[in-house]
Request: fold
Amino acid sequence: MLQPGTKASNFEGLDENGNSVKLSDFKGKKLVLYFYPKDSTPGCTAEACDLRDNYQRFLSLGYEIVGVSRDSAASHQRFIAKYNLPFRLIADTDLTILKAYEAWGEKKMYGKVTEGTLRTTYVIDEQGVIIDAIAKVETRNHSAQLLGE
Reply:
């Protein structure tokens, strides 16, 4: 996991509408960059909806939110529409961003070791430096976790 104080890796990916999203787009703003395993699964839905429900608060504090998973743009479009998500989701189908942010690796599920997305969130400051890194994400309470409540 990347540590606070580390310069965030430059990234560029395509969102749910095929538009480019890159780290430099957020210069001068704080960015919550969250990595999640799969659209419309219970934990991922709880996390996205918690961020959605607190989105205006994040904006008022100078944050943007971007989610990243290996799902396709079409899957992201369905997920956004179904849950009325107000933020962009990057379709990292080739795992480039997931690997650059150490959010892809070995994990255990039901006693079986597999490779997959490690649910991880980074907060990046206005100059592109990681100021917080969360590996133990509380999906239903992620906003409070990020805002230190």
The helical segments are 42-53, 55-60, 73-83, 96-100, 142-146. The chain has a mean pLDDT of 95. The chain is about 25% helix and 30% strand. The chain has one domain: 12-146.
